[in-house]
DNA sequence: AGGGTTTGATTAAGCGTTTAATCACCTTAC
DNA sequence: GTAAGGTGATTAAACGCTTAATCAAACCCT
């Protein structure tokens, strides 16, 4: 005498319409042979009765869960929001849900996380692996988002080209003496970026690469990087391969009385959330996460489709890597190279 | 002639052992009546045959998907990674998966995202709502992570108390003239923090609150906040309610030649990822996300349990809000108040 | 007009679990 | 010796959906 239809199911609908459940199913999925008018009618009543198909039932029957797994090696990564948002959006557009798992940087846990997702029935996985980690062969489609150096299906930002872009931009501003700041020399991504920058420099330009990890292992965490001295020696631009490092450089220079961008330019990578709001706001290279996620999800669904048809393990679609161009975001922290001042006390406000 | 047992199911196991499927199910779940030896034997063969129960089947039968939905309204929020990580961990510990949905800041999309999760069969939802948004009544258990001012089940950091803690700490360092920096006066969270700070100040202390949004609406985005002037006028500590703002304050002061922490202290809130690595590293109040997530998930599972038993809608467990204390993280950006200098040009390095 | 094809719908089986109901058997008690 | 009770297992139905197989009726063609 109370709840009329708490949540109608396919049979309820069929009964109410006086047709069979199969017909309703066909009408809604557009698969079998149903007359156009009936389809119309069924869809209408389905909508107004608030019918929601049971995903578990569908999953059980079809063997597809309609869920993608997103494995973040380290969820605390500052780029995570961008990635998660983009992947979720792309997946939702294709009618898929996104299950997350995090391996908190622990390489052992990474496979654990992957397994959890597989047990939950994820149809395929998007993996953002921990640095230097390889994703082993699991029995399901996988797409990796990383630097383009993975034997699997990979989609990544074109870090090398990103480096070139920012290098060229800075050259066009008249800079000739580069200090390139990296975090860890073991990172593929960072090395790609550094390589890109250097490859864009002509013969008359100088560049020096410093790795924060190296310096800190000597002088302790949070130590000075000696940038002010380098600026005094003639470096006009500090090119960090991450906004994290760019911020650090920016503050060190400002503390040392070097005016940014008048006396020196600072640039970063990744366009992290605070990059627009610091002063001066950071010039940086942004990854096109939306495109990366779109491609990743598309490739994944492709593989999932293919998996359904192909029984023999031989005819899986060949692994493919795609590079997505990065975008230069020019803000206030970069500008023209200062007029040459040969270690004379120039017009710039120094100590 | 190839795959021996691609993925055994309950019946396969039962057949191999010569018992019924029901017995296997009971043995594994420990529910029915099965002899201890048989349980032992079944569990053993289950394990070594690599048996993985089908979640969809279980979900279909029991009506529980074993999945929690995580709704992030304000995905740009820098705390997002911490929250997601903590929730995922807490849920995984309880054998639950986490499905994410993002409403990209759009308030209309928020309900859409919630619905997507419900359609996917989420047993319950953890919602981190967009500022000023209320979560409407959906037919499932919900826990909200927000400032403690929501009519629903809510768990939140005790922002007010956090404000008091940092206020007291700064008082103990001798500070008496506070500038409190907020972003938007419409944020509950920020208001709580500001209120907490002020409530901790004795009569002989002065405080002034400035809202960045207000200043920027007059002077344009990224404008100066006039902090250097305030420092000259005697303010010795700049208390931001977010590390984002603290960073901005820090840079503005450093650019103006104010030494932090010698001439003035700067503190923030949230312990964002870069807070330890800027120079000087930021003193801040950290939320205990792990605890918050634990409580949120626990309360959610509780509600899900209760929902199973209680038929009458009346006897749902009463909404409860919990506050989790924040943790003071002392780093380099704060220190003792400088010795009094009555607008005379002190010993500090200025312009 | 009657055999073949097309169209629009139905029937029924099955996906892998859980669980209430049932059953056979063994104890125990009177 | 037999009824009552306990124990350890089985049977069978159900969860909600998809889909191949089937079927009845309408259509086409010569």
TrEMBL record, chains A, B:
The keyword Glycoprotein does not apply. Residues 10-42 form the HTH cro/C1-type domain. This is LacI family transcriptional regulator. The lineage of its organism: Bacteria, Pseudomonadati, Pseudomonadota, Alphaproteobacteria, Hyphomicrobiales. It comes from Microvirga terricola. InterPro entries: Cro/C1-type_HTH, HTH_LacI, LacI/GalR-like_sensor, Lambda_DNA-bd_dom_sf, Peripla_BP_I. Pfam families: LacI, Peripla_BP_3. PROSITE patterns: HTH_CROC1, HTH_LACI_2. Keywords: DNA-binding, Repressor, Transcription, Transcription regulation. CDD domains: HTH_LacI, PBP1_LacI_sugar_binding-like. Residues 8-62 form the HTH lacI-type domain.
